[in-house]
Design goal:
2 helices; alpha+beta; 5 strands; three-stranded antiparallel β-sheet; globular
Length: about 80
């Protein structure tokens, strides 16, 4: 799928990956609530990490480079 389709899939709550990260990580939208505000970002999360442990995922995910959406090698994984 294209990068724009992958971005829309993320907005729809799906998890996606691309050829560079396929065997290790999936891109997800993480939302974390602090005392002051609600933080949201796209991040690469290890396949083996539980999505239920959001604080761990937030702290140990890999920053997402927006230029990844310029490639058309995306697929939905969950």
């Amino acid at each position: 799928m294209t990068g724009l389709e992958a971005l829309q899939a993320l907005r729809d709550g799906k998890k996606v990956t691309n050829a560079n990260m396929k065997n290790d990580y999936k891109a997800v939208v993480l939302t974390f609530e602090t005392q002051d505000c609600l933080l949201t970002r796209i991040a690469w999360v290890n396949w083996d990490e539980s999505d239920e442990d959001l604080k761990y995922a937030w702290e140990f995910s890999i920053n997402f480079d927006g230029t990844d959406f310029l490639k058309d090698d995306w697929e939905i994984v969950e």
